[in-house]
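Lab notebook page, bench 4
Experiment: in silico fold of construct C2
Operator: M.H.
Input chain length: 204 residues
Purpose: comparison with the prior construct
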Amino acid sequence: MKKAIGIIVLILPIMWVLHTFSKNFMIDPAFEKFISRKDLILTDQSLWIFMIRIHISLAIISLLTGPLGVIKRIRVKSIKFHRWNGRLYVLSIILNFIPGVYVSFFATGGWPSTIGFLILNTLWFGTTILGYWYIKRQKVTLHIQWIIRSFFLSFANMTIYIIVAIAHNALNFSYGNAYTIAVWLCWTLNLLIAEFIIRKRAFS
């Protein structure tokens, strides 16, 4: 089971990064389709596009560095690589906090979605900082547990995409309602999965 989880955690982020990069930087670089579904008119569309691009770019870095840090077989091969990879992972999330908060205020679904995103950003930032804080104090077990929580929160966007597809396309919820539901479920479900992984000691 541990091997299967490791393979999934290694392949899934790469697939999602390819999907995210192609969709947001090649197919629709101006985010026209995404903006058209928003309830609010963007007061400064160029600034929003700039911030969302930073947000996505930093999220891609966290998705690429995350698996290299949490999979035991990879991290034990080189402690030096693990440390530098971990620093890059932590930095990408710390730098993403402000862009993440900014785009939250223009979230599809209005204030319910904004609050959900602000909670997500705070949890992502907090779990990452705790993971870094514990390794600095050589508390390896706690470090692993908090980084696992942080890493699974990195999949929030993918979870939103899946839930919206189900709620909007299959269950006929309005796009705004489906999006709001997805925003709240993305971090609750992902943290539940993280707790399951922690209890199974899949990355220990």
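Observations: The CA atoms of residues 152 and 160 lie 13 Å apart. The mean pLDDT is 91.
Next step: discuss at group meeting.
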